[in-house]
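User: Let's play a game. I give you a shape written as tokens, and you guess the letters that built it. Ready? Here's round one.
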């Protein structure tokens, strides 16, 4: 699963935001075995997107048991 763009995060609903939180790999994880400079660059970029996803989650009402179950978490 690829990290979304900031624009995609802006347009996402609560379920999509939590889906990304649930299923995206840790920032930089996909680049661990490659070039160190690329890893750090991607880790920084992806961490900023993940922080933005979490911010948007809070702005849209946070996590509820219903949304949590909809994306595969049991609340």
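Assistant: Ready! My guess for every position:
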């Amino acid at each position: 699963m690829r990290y979304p763009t900031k624009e995609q995060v802006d347009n996402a609903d609560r379920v999509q935001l939590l889906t990304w939180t649930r299923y995206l790999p840790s920032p930089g994880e996909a680049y661990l075995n490659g070039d160190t400079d690329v890893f750090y660059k991607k880790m920084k970029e992806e961490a900023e997107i993940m922080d933005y996803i979490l911010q948007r989650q809070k702005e849209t009402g946070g996590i509820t048991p219903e949304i949590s179950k909809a994306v595969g978490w049991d609340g």
